[in-house]
Amino acid sequence: MTNVLDSGLTEIPTPRRKRITRWHKVKRWFRNHRALSIIFAVVGVLLLIVLLWLLWLMSKLGDIQRFPLDLDDRPPSLAGTTILLAGIDDPERREDLFDMLESGEWEQGEFRSDAIMLLHINTDFRSAQLISIPRDSYVNVEGYGKTKINASFSYGGPSLLTKAVEDLTKVRVDHVMVIDFTHFADLADTLGGVKVNIPTGGTDPTGFTWEPGPVTLRGESAVYYVRARYNLPRGDFDRVQRQQNFLRAVLNQVRSRRILANPFKISELVTELSDLVAVDESFTPGKMRSLAISSRNLRPAVIRFATVPYTGTPTIDGASVVTLDIRATREMMGAMARDQFEVWLANAGDGVDQLPDAAQVD
């Protein structure tokens, strides 16, 4: 038999198989699973939208005005995170204040703080405390001697106020937040109203009339609620509790499913907050985001609201002031800073001025 190769005939080439790449396999899979392909495409688009939304939220945190702090000789850091909240008393000049904070050039006598609170979030993020310091507390202010603590903000802005608070409490402040508290009350509209209770109705000196019973605060009524004091039995002490009660009600409202499940409401909320607060330079968007995520399961029910121990309201040098129990205040704040507030509270007895149930706040 003659060999084909030996006969001089050309060998017939074997057809080459088309190379099947990974991309071809992917396309074939999508052709064979059209329904799943559509689902994956929709999910991908949604994930992209969520990612862009989260990036937008981060940008809003970056839009918050920041200011420098000039502090030295400070207490040591202990546990958890402690934030000083300072509410301003001249909402009509909020833009002037925020511009002054950002520039770092403070003008004495321009502003005072009418709400001073320390928010401490425990290391495990399972509990927190919000402790108010009455604005008329008579304390030592570095460089100015004994005076009302809110005067420290007037003399030296957030830096001097922080110094006064740290000298009083012997607790280190990790971050400072200045809040336009009056316009902060406008958040009630964004949240669809904030529910509180008015035990006793009546007309306050501003002419605003309250009806007794459950009230949904919106707009003007929310502003009157957090600023009222002259018609309250304990004056400024009750005003402090109203501010705390409003914050507690806001937290309850924010944690409701109606808000958390609504990205439009969350966007509104973040946008409004970015216009109403200013923070120190070290409170970066990354730190704010990390703290918010870690605290996501923190419920208002596990937050203690209280006021520092005080001894009286005498008149000194022609001004009504609040005298504090310094030893008890430092014990209280020290326990807070070590994440041991509940232990301290259990041993402190009934003398602690705590925020009562919502139905009992004047």
Your description of this structure?
This protein has 362 residues and is an alpha+beta fold. The protein has two domains: 24-58; 64-360, LCP protein (Aminopeptidase, 3-Layer(aba) Sandwich), CATH 3.40.630. It is built from 13 helices and 18 strands. The chain has helices at residues 22-32, 34-63, 94-103, 149-169, 181-184, 187-190, 220-227, 236-254, 257-260, 263-276, 285-294, 326-337, 341-348, and strands at residues 65-67, 81-88, 113-121, 128-132, 138-141, 145-148, 175-179, 194-198, 202-203, 209-210, 213-217, 277-280, 303-307, 310-312, 315-316, 319-320, 323-324, 353-354. An eight-stranded mixed β-sheet has the order 1-12-7-2-3-4-13-18, with helices on both faces. It has a two-stranded antiparallel ribbon with strand order 5-6. A hairpin with a 6-residue loop joins strand 3 and strand 4 (128-132). The longest helix is centred in the first third of the chain and has 30 residues, at 34-63. The radius of gyration is 30 Å and the shape is globular.
What order do the helices and strands come in, and which of them pair?
Elements: H1 22-32, H2 34-63, E1 65-67, E2 81-88, H3 94-103, E3 113-121, E4 128-132, E5 138-141, E6 145-148, H4 149-169, E7 175-179, H5 181-184, H6 187-190, E8 194-198, E9 202-203, E10 209-210, E11 213-217, H7 220-227, H8 236-254, H9 257-260, H10 263-276, E12 277-280, H11 285-294, E13 303-307, E14 310-312, E15 315-316, E16 319-320, E17 323-324, H12 326-337, H13 341-348, E18 353-354
Features:
eight-stranded mixed β-sheet, 2 domains, single chain, two-stranded antiparallel ribbon, 362 residues, globular, 20% strand, 18 strands, alpha+beta, 43% helix, Aminopeptidase
